[in-house]
């Protein structure tokens, strides 16, 4: 088994410890800052480029989350308006909508959200709902044993209720092999969209980040490793939503971007 892989169990924290993001929390003013704000247990970033049709169903699945939800809207559709409407009708959630008038890229959107995060624990997940909020809460709890925890679809204990097609799975395994060779990362799955970290670890490496596309996850894990932070891999329940935003040309850009990062040309 990969040395970074850990099953999610009670070894992560003392018995009875619950994820801080599932505890009660009162809404606070929207004041972006790079430091933590007392009272907010965790911040969860949702990059949402042209997600007006998927963002409402996603929020319909989110209950019992007492952290802040930061939605980064950098598209051309009505995603921001939909999010702001949801915020008005969901007083049980702390929702912040960050608007940008230009495309940030997947990684760029996550970076802006992490910069605005106010909690000691931060994370991000995809707007397609492939990972449920319950899985994110498990990942946050796992940070009791490490500086970060990433969801993995390729370790023992993971549950894929709807699998990707054969070609996509082959591409994923080939990409993972390349990442192991280029970056020395032993993770089985760097591209699962569910990741959480301690804010101090993220703040330490974020200024050095250059990736703004889908290659962002790999660079982030690589820089955290090089800085001496521990990130564990946790089996996750995941389902393929079919409408992937990663196209062939994106994969080519990812590879080129990673080569530039690895060999110092970015």
> Radius of gyration over alpha carbons?
17 Å
Helix fraction? 25-40%
Please state the overall shape, judged from the principal axes of the Cα atoms. Answer: globular
Strand order of the largest sheet: 3-2-1-4-7-5-8
Return the CATH topology: Spore Coat Polysaccharide Biosynthesis Protein SpsA, Chain A
Structurally, the number of domains stands at 1
Strand content: 15-25%
What summary fits the major beta sheet? 7 strands, mixed
- Mean pLDDT, as a whole number? 85
CATH architecture: Alpha-Beta Complex
The low-pLDDT segments are 1-17, 23-34
Judged by helices, strands and strand pairing, the structural class is alpha/beta
CATH class: Alpha Beta
SSE topology string: EHEHEHEHEEHEHHEEH
Multimeric state of these chains? single chain
**SS field, number of helical segments:** 8
Name the features.
266 residues; alpha/beta; Spore Coat Polysaccharide Biosynthesis Protein SpsA, Chain A; seven-stranded mixed sheet; two-stranded parallel ribbon; 9 strands; 33% helix; disordered N terminus
């Amino acid at each position: 088994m990969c040395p970074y892989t850990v099953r999610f169990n009670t070894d992560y924290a003392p018995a009875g410890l619950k994820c801080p993001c599932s505890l009660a929390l009162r809404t606070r003013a929207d004041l972006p800052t790079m430091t933590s704000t007392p009272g907010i247990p965790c911040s969860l970033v949702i990059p949402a480029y042209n997600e007006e049709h998927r963002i409402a169903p996603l929020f319909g699945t989110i209950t019992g989350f007492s952290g802040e939800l930061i939605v980064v809207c950098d598209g051309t559709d009505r995603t921001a308006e939909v999010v702001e409407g949801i915020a008005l009708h969901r007083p049980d959630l702390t929702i912040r909508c960050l608007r940008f008038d230009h495309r940030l890229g997947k990684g760029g959107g996550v970076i802006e959200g992490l910069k605005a995060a106010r909690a000691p624990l931060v994370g991000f997940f995809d707007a397609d709902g492939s990972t449920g909020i319950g899985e994110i809460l498990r990942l946050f709890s796992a940070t009791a044993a490490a500086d970060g925890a990433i969801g993995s679809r390729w370790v023992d204990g993971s549950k894929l209720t709807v699998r990707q097609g054969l070609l996509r799975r082959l591409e994923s395994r080939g990409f993972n092999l390349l990442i192991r060779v280029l970056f020395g990362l032993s993770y089985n799955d760097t591209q699962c969209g569910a990741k959480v970290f301690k804010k101090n670890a993220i703040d330490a490496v974020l200024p050095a980040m250059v990736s703004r596309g889908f290659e962002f996850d790999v660079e982030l894990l690589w820089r955290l490793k090089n800085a001496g932070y521990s990130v564990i891999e946790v089996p996750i329940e995941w389902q393929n939503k079919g409408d992937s935003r990663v196209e062939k040309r994106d994969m080519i850009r990812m590879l080129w971007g990673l080569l530039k990062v690895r060999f110092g040309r970015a």
